Write the structure tokens for this entry.
Amino acid sequence: MKTAAGAGVIGTADPVPVERSDESAIAALPVEPQSTPGPANGRSLALWILALLAVVFALSWAQAFVVPLLLGIVIAYTLNPLVAGLEAVRLPRAVGTVIVMAAVIGAIALGTYSLRGQMQTIIEQLPAAASKFASGVTRMRVGQTGNLQKIQDAATEVEKATAQAAGGNAPRQPAARVAVDPPTFRLGNFLLDSSIGALGAAVQAAMVVFLVFFLLLGGDTFKRKLVRLAGPSMSNKKITVQILDAINGSIQKYMLMMLTTNLLVALLTWIALRWIGLDNAGAWAVAAGLLHIVPYLGPGITAAATGMAAFMQFDSFGMALLVAGASLAIATAIGTFVTTWMTGRIADMNAAAVFISLLFWGWLWGVWGMLLSIPIIVIVKVVSQHLAPLHPVAELLGD
């Protein structure tokens, strides 16, 4: 049954013909708002919250597996252009992978070997540094205790004067004494825990090296498999390819940015520490460049370590503060201006969203989470930009 132009459906399941003369009457009718049932919405929201909590718990529980996996993927994305370049000159991919991996590991080993003398000197000076630092802290604590004692004596005199003014009838109570407990830090326990942690880190590093090798050896195998898993639709396959290419480009640009900023931090730190006159400036500069990979926490550790080394060498808290402040100022300047500008050019990320991601992943995985937070949020943004249901997430993360 045909309906006239502009016909509508009101309260019936079957279409009802409506004349154009009745359109004004229909427009005047009250429109009842359509709403979904509240319990269904609440149930859906509860399911989403439970699913999110389950994912967070699973990520925390599987940290020992997920963290090396993500590190391997990020490093493989970074080194893949080198292997692809060797493959372009008709070198077998297996040979190119071995050459690139050997070159990277050799460069790390050569850099460590060239700085072994300075690092050995720093390690040998650790007991003396800890003793001297403890003595300085003790002197500061004694001075603070003396000030507290003076304040207590003054309070006692005021109490005596108040009691005499009241006729001496007010009962006097002895002034409370503040007891300063000695610190419970034990260097032996700290070094034992550090050794166990270093052994675990070495095992995980070996796992990451093997994972990177096999990912580079596989080439585009996983990419082709993901495209096939996207389904027979050409649009789905095209979107999958675009997502993988965008993730690849974003991670490679981010890792190039990290390499540039870390080298800049190491160079400026070396210049500043050499100008101040700190011993082993080269080793401290390398440590500053490596620790700058971890946002916020890395520069703080560098500032504390270099400040302690300066106190041991100059026996002055002023020089310790100068060295620590110079290290922190360099890291802050590079992080604020260079890193922020380059990150904005690479991913167009919202600074608040990046910082919240840093807090979340740092809370979940500690230092490794802080290291991987930016690659993870970049991947989330890239995927959200290419999937229509996730466009609000991309808008929230965007600048």
Remarks:
- The first helix runs from residue 23 to 28.
- The radius of gyration is 32 Å.
